[in-house]
Specification:
alpha+beta; single chain; globular; 3-stranded antiparallel β-sheet; 36% helix
Length: 108
């Protein structure tokens, strides 16, 4: 089974060329949508409640929430790993960027 890194900076493709591209785009949409911001689907996306927690607590909460949200809203994806980019600039700016690796159910 192949693993894919979700690129959070990639744009929207209204006609994905493959199922893999479609699943990656769907996971990216989940990860970049704030919970409560989608009309008629207020449970879609990720919460920002953990934003002011200590970094280790925030990351643990984010990791659990990412896994649950992907399982719920993109059942074709399996979250293989969630880690966080670490750079001096992001640390100084108080940012933490998730790196999510997925595999796709049913793919050989």
């Amino acid at each position: 089974m192949s693993e894919y890194l979700v690129n959070l900076k990639q744009g929207i493709d209204f006609a994905p060329s493959s199922e893999v591209a479609e699943v990656l785009q769907n996971v990216r949409t989940i990860l970049t949508t704030r919970l409560g911001s989608v009309p008629l689907e207020r449970d879609f996306g990720l919460s920002w409640e953990h934003i002011d927690q200590p970094i280790n607590v925030a990351r643990a909460l984010m990791k659990a929430e990412i896994i649950e949200a992907v399982e719920r809203f993109e059942p074709r994806a399996i979250v293989e790993a969630v880690s966080f980019d670490e750079s001096v600039e992001d640390g100084q700016d108080g940012l933490t960027r998730p790196r999510v690796t997925i595999s796709i159910k049913g793919e050989a």
